[in-house]
Design brief:
The complex is a heterodimer of chains A (188) and B (173). In chain A, 43% of the residues lie in helices and 20% in strands. By secondary structure, chain A is of the alpha/beta class. Chain B is an all-alpha fold and 173 residues long. The longest helix of chain B is centred in the middle third of the chain and has 33 residues. The chains are: A alpha/beta (188), B mainly alpha (173). At the A-B interface, helix 1 of A face helix 1, helix 2, helix 4, helix 5 and helix 6 of B.
Chain lengths: 188, 173
């Protein structure tokens, strides 16, 4: 066996072992609580999360916002990104649906760009959904909520249960769908 | 050269050679028998790496399927797969073109892209190793960019070796 082949073989097997180790570590984690990976469904408790707030100056601030801290209020969670054009159409609809209720409902605007473009995210929210609470997500929370396409809207009731999951948002019916969901969310 | 023949045995040896004996791996890829091993080796590495590092995402997609959201499950899987494949694919296409252009009259497109596939192995390997480090708590999470930078730098060195290898071959008539 040549030296080159010997080193190559060792390196190759180290690589194979690294792949296997990553797989084993994740399998152990999944095996412990596979159900925790299930995206929230209607009637289930919404998964709690804590994300940094994007402040009025468009900076990712030291202040963090958790879903738990909003418990007791109907919450509309809007997953979006600055590059997503349909999201820009959705935001004013959600903002007006929340504003029309004149109660303590909250629009939680989750920008999935993470820390990349907070200033742009703030500008868009100020323009399209003023009053929304803007937070930055690196994608982890979106993954937990099973967000595969954006915009993705989730409505949570006062007890913290999911009353609406809108995956493929239809703009025509979005307003009425969200208003009805908020009605249910406020009543509970 | 003895090492060229010795490096033929199996995919694990060839992938390892790309990491620790790149000159020998590139020389062996010049005279592949059968041809096309470098792309298939890289594909196996990328797909195995994807399966290992995206198990949680795959499980989430499975739950979505169970919950009746088949489209969401497919979207999730394809999104994650495209994330995993994008960097090596762009590297191979860009690197293959670079090797081909810089090889001048000695260019051999199929072999040049084989060489680029070998140069892309560190990119895919680094991603797996850094993901393992993150899971073991040795490094912080959110390592995608670090993995990309290290892998690209390492791969770039291999691309330079690939160009040199390509320029050494006999010119096409």
């Amino acid at each position: 066996m040549t030296t080159a082949l010997g080193r190559a073989r060792v390196a190759g097997w180290v690589l194979v072992l690294a792949i296997a180790a990553v797989m084993v570590v994740d399998l152990v984690g999944i095996g412990r609580d596979c159900d925790a990976l299930r995206p929230p469904r209607l009637g289930q408790k919404a998964i709690d999360f804590t994300l940094p707030t994007i402040d009025a100056r468009g900076a990712v601030s030291e202040t963090w916002t958790s879903l738990e801290s909003l418990r007791g209020k109907p919450i509309v969670i809007d997953f979006w990104a600055t590059w997503c054009h349909p999201c820009r159409q959705t935001m004013p609809v959600l903002a007006s649906a929340v504003a029309r209720r004149r109660d303590d409902a909250v629009l939680l605007s989750v920008c999935t760009d993470g820390n990349d473009r907070p200033r742009e995210a703030r500008r868009l929210v100020d323009e399209l959904a003023p009053g929304a609470l803007l937070v930055a997500d690196e994608g982890d929370v979106a993954d937990e909520y099973g967000v595969s396409t954006i915009p993705h809207v989730v409505v949570v009731d006062r007890a913290g249960r999911v009353v609406l999951v809108e995956r493929r948002v239809a703009l025509d019916s979005l307003r009425s769908t969200v208003e009805q969901a908020l009605e249910r969310a406020s009543a509970k | 050269m003895r090492t060229e023949k010795a490096l033929v045995p199996n995919a694990v040896d060839r992938l390892g050679a790309a990491l620790v004996a790149p000159r020998a791996a590139l020389e062996a890829a010049e005279k592949p028998s059968p041809p096309g091993r470098a792309p298939s080796d890289l594909a196996v590495l990328v797909l195995a790496g994807f399966a290992a590092t995206h198990l949680i995402g795959i499980t989430r997609a499975g739950w979505m399927l169970v919950d009746g959201d088949g489209t969401g499950a497919v979207d999730t899987l394809l999104g994650q797969l495209s994330d995993a494949v994008r960097a090596p694919l762009v590297f191979v296409l860009g690197g293959g073109l670079l090797v081909m252009l810089l090889a001048g009259k000695r260019r051999a497109p199929a072999t040049d892209f084989d060489l680029a596939c070998i140069a892309a192995v560190p990119l895919a390997a680094t991603a797996v190793v850094l993901q393992l480090a993150a899971r073991l708590g040795v490094m912080a999470s959110g390592l995608d960019r670090a993995a990309l930078a290290i892998g690209c730098g390492w791969g770039a060195v291999l691309l330079l070796l690939a160009v040199r290898q390509a320029r050494r071959r006999e010119a096409a008539p």
